[in-house]
Amino acid sequence: MSRNTSLLTRIHARLTTTDVFVGSWMFVTVVAYYHNFLFVQSTALSYVYAFASYGVGVVYARYDTTGKHLLAIGTIGGFLELLGDYFLVTIAGTLVYPSGYPFLLRSPVYMPFAWALLIVFMGYVALRLADEYGTAAAYLGPAIFAFLAESGYESLASQGGGWTYLTAPLGWIGHAPLFIVVAEAVMFASSYYWVRQNILVGGIGIGSTISISYVGIYYLFVVIGSLL
To answer: What separation in angstroms does the CA of 159 have from each of 35, 48, 104, 154?
Structure first.
């Protein structure tokens, strides 16, 4: 009991007010989407949650320079991620979004804003890990977190009406293609590098990394699959 108390005390001592805010913002956003995918399964609600959470980020960015920096990078990266979705939907033919809602290229209009939030959250985690534990943790932490969290999230979204996947070279994790989960771990391993750059370089860098990761890992897995 005393060891647990001591651990909690050390964790609490390291937390900043911003940590608590960003952590709560991330937690509420994730719970909202889990609620939708598990119980409501409404594409319209995905729009509401994405824009509402992004709006929180806009307000936060007005009062915090790091938040402003991360949100700007995330927004640029989120819109460039549309190219990754275009590849998955049109070229690879593996990703399908529900029809009947506004689209940008091949993605629902809310998707760039949802990606902006994910980039902000991963970028913030990377920066704080660097502060507390060093650069190795800053690179590895988001990658591990993405692999573990996104495997469940992608699978749940596929079951809950957010989007579906049709094919998966080298197999699945639940209802999520293995290559998607690996690609998301790879792309977010770079978060720490990109969020330390200026807004334009960081935004283009993380957005390009997202698309390159999807394309590269997909074809790598296709090649490996053809050899097995």
So the answer is: 13, 20, 23, 9
Q: Do residues 70 and 195 touch, judged by C-beta distance below 8 A?
A: yes
What whole-number distance in Å separates Cα of residue 160 and Cα of residue 143?
A: 25
Confidence check: pLDDT of 12 > 70: no
Residues 145 and 158: their CA atoms lie apart, in Å, by 20
What is the number of domains present in the chain? 1
Range scoring the smallest mean pLDDT among 10-19, 48-57, 79-88, 115-124: 10-19
Could you tell me if 70 and 76 are in contact, meaning their C-beta atoms sit under 8 angstroms apart? Answer: no
Instruction: Spell out the residues 6+ positions from residue 201 whose beta carbon is closer than 8 angstroms to its own.
Output: 194
- Whole-model pTM: value is 0.94
Q: Which amino acid is at 85?
A: D
pLDDT tens digits along 13-68: 678 999 999 999 999 999 999 999 999 999 999 999 999 999 999 999 999 999 99
Tokens of 204: 């283009």
**C-beta separation of 46 from 108 below 8 A:** yes
Domain that holds residue 25: 2-227
Cα 98 from chain centroid (whole Å)? 20
Q: What Cα–Cα distance (Å) separates residue 110 from each residue in 52, 79, 136, 174?
A: 11, 10, 33, 25
